[in-house]
Amino acid sequence: MTFLKNIPPHPGTPDPADDQVLILAYKQTQDLKVLAQLYQPYLDLLYGVCLKYLGEPETAKDAVMDLFEELAQKLLRHEVTHFKGWLYTLAKNHCLMKLRSSSRTRIQSIDPESMQTAEDLHLKDKVEQEEQFDRLSGCIEGLPADQRTVIRLFYLEHNSYKEIETATGMEWNKVRSYIQNGRRNLKLCLQRQEKGKDPVLQEHKIINE
């Protein structure tokens, strides 16, 4: 991807305000060099996400390049206010789709005579991980808006309390409360799923503060 190779590394932490300027410029011009300037500061983050889900360094590198092409299309169709979080979710979903595609290919090629081999057990683990990610994502979506925002920033994007306070304008005590109660709500949601009940939290069960 020549556009990425020709853009120098970002010297520090990306500025959300700069991200918005570049997003607007790209939507107006559809210039891939502008998109590369937006994308470049997040390469390390995206590689880490892809490596976590896909497990192989070379596969993770390929996924980061594929993500750039996907971003070029999707950014034109979406209104993005928190680019870092949105990009993280895009990368995660991209990797999960690759895992699903890989799983389907492996399942089709399995010989019934060789069931329960080490490769099959590894595949089973991958599928179970995908299902767990999907369940957790569904539970996060069911959280009250403030809890959902803070949980994503803290657990998915690995921001500190102070960084979340700065990014959202919430007081420190509110951030702590949303994390604690969001975690309780997620635990309740996952427990309900394990018991085979409705995976969506009932409104009167949700801790809103």
Describe it for me?
This protein has 209 residues and is mainly alpha-helical. The chain has two domains: 1-109, RNA polymerase sigma factor, region 2, helix turn helix motif (Rna Polymerase Sigma Factor, Chain: A, Orthogonal Bundle); 113-209, Orthogonal Bundle (Arc Repressor Mutant, subunit A), CATH 1.10.10.10. It is 73% helix and 0% strand. The chain has ten helices and no strands. Helix 6 (83-109) packs antiparallel against helix 7 (118-141), helix 7 packs across helix 10 and helix 8 (145-156) crosses helix 10 (172-194). The chain starts with a helix and ends in a 15-residue tail after the last helix. Residues 7-11, 105-121 and 197-204 have low confidence and may be disordered.
Which structural category do the helix and sheet elements fall into? mainly alpha
What is the string of SSEs from the N terminus onward? HHHHHHHHHH
Number of helices: 10
Mean pLDDT: 77
Q: Estimate the strand proportion.
A: under 5%
Please write out the topology.
Layout: H1 2-5, H2 16-29, H3 32-39, H4 43-54, H5 57-77, H6 83-109, H7 118-141, H8 145-156, H9 161-168, H10 172-194
Helix pairs in contact: 2-3, 4-5, 4-6, 5-6, 6-7, 7-10, 8-10
Summarize the structure.
The protein is an all-alpha fold and 209 residues long.
Structure characteristics:
209 residues; mainly alpha; Rna Polymerase Sigma Factor, Chain: A; Arc Repressor Mutant, subunit A; 2 domains; 10 helices
